[in-house]
Structures are given as C-alpha cells and as structure tokens.
Amino acid sequence: MALEFPSAKSKEVCRALEAFGFVMVKAKGSHYFYRLPGEDIVHAIQVPYHSAEVSRVTVKMYAKRLRERYGVTFKEFIKALKSGKARKLTPPG
Amino acid sequence: MTTRSTTSTATVKVLEAVVVAYRMDGSWHAVAPSLDLWFSHDDLQEALKGVVEGAAAALALMAEEGALRRYLEARGFQLEGSAFRVPEGVWLKQVEELLREVREAEDGAEPDLEGLPRERCRIHTIELEAPALGS
Question: Between B72 and which of A14, A60, A88, B77 could a Cys-Cys bridge form, CB atoms 3.0 to 4.6 Å apart?
Fold first, then answer.
C-alpha cells in the first residue's frame, strides 16, 4: 500500500527542515532558503512562506529531495512534519 | 502565459523554466520542477506570480553567492542562444512525473500531456532576466 503524504503548512515544512539540521540561509521576500551547515549553496532548499496549504504533491517533492540527497525515508519526513523532531543530517560525501 | 521581468535583448541571458499549475484541495499549486520551487494560492495568477518571484529570489541569492551558473547547471539548465533552459526531453519527463504524482494524489484526475483537464492542470513557461550570468 502506497504511503499517503499529508498536506502541510509552510511553517511545518520549515520546522521539519530545521529538525533535520537545516538552517535558514536567507529570506528574500516570502521565500526562505535552507541548507545544511557547510553545504554548497546550490543545494539550498527553497520554501515559500505563506498561509496557503502546501499540497500533498509538493510535500512529496520535498520528501523525494531529502531521500535522494540525504537518505531520509518518506516515513521519517512525514514524522518530522508532524512532530518537529528528526535526526540531524550531515552533507553527503 | 509568459512572464518576463523586464525587456530583454538578444545579448541578455534569460532563464526559461516550465511551470505546471494544478488545482487541488481548493488551491492552485504552481510548480517549476527544474527549479524545485512552488507556490500555492487560491488564485492561479497569484500562484504563478509566486513562482516567478521565487525564481527571481533564487537567482538573486545565487548571484550574491557567486554560484548562479553552478546552480543552474546542477539543475540541468543549458545555454541555448541567449536563454538558459532545460532540454525539452528532460523537462517533459519532469512534467510527466509531476502529473503522475498529481494523479496518484487525486484519484480520477488522470491528467496527462495529451489530454490535460484544463480546469485542473496547465503548463506555462516563465522567463526571467539573468544578467548576473554574464557572457
């Protein structure tokens, strides 16, 4: 059975990224940029900070990005979204 | 819809990115798969505007950090004439993958490139000037 991704709020996505150890590099308007300390800026993750709901498809997009680059499982990401708690990541290689 | 931030000339480098907008749970969600960015809003035009602003913010940040060209190349953009764009075959795959995700998330929507339900899914191209790229 396929894992169901929830919709979320921007602040929940930001909180999950921070739980994994990402720090905000910069805010430009309503767009926030996160990266792991010591990681190249080109890998920064962008989160538009607004009140609209982040769709399930977009939540999955973040989850896939974290899985492909950092080995975070989908379950880990969903748990971090809900609880704001996660293991700290380190930049790959 | 094509959005250009300012008037460009043949010598000015522009960024062209494909944006998919889909309607889900009462909002429009615009996603530029090549740039890993998105924006959601009740209004389609505002959602697209959010993506344009997000792309501009990313370009500005990367330019400040001296990483703009690497940022674009890492995402598959190539310089063709005066524009940086992702090759068609690549963005088509990205769009197809995104549409599959939309279909999975909403049973029965079945959007695809051949027969997009126009009231639900649309494909746009955004253009932004990227003068910081240089020649």
Answer: B77
- Residues pairing with B78 in the sheet: B85
ipTM at complex level = 0.90
B27 Cβ under 8 Å from any chain A Cβ? yes
Residue in chain B nearest A48 by alpha carbon: B39
Closest residue in B to A28 (Cα) is: B57
pLDDT digits (tens, 9 = 90+) for B31-46: 999 999 999 999 999 9
**Separation in Å, CA A46 to CA A2, A9, B87, B110, B117:** 26, 14, 23, 28, 29
| CATH fourth-level superfamily of A8-83 | Hypothetical protein. (3.30.920.30)
Contact B61 A28 (CB under 8 A): yes
**Domain residue spans of chain A:** 8-83
C-beta atoms surrounding A27 within 10 Å: 13
pLDDT band for position B128 (50/70/90)?
A: confident
> Average pLDDT of B112-135?
66
User: Is B61's CB within 8 Å of A5's CB?
Assistant: no
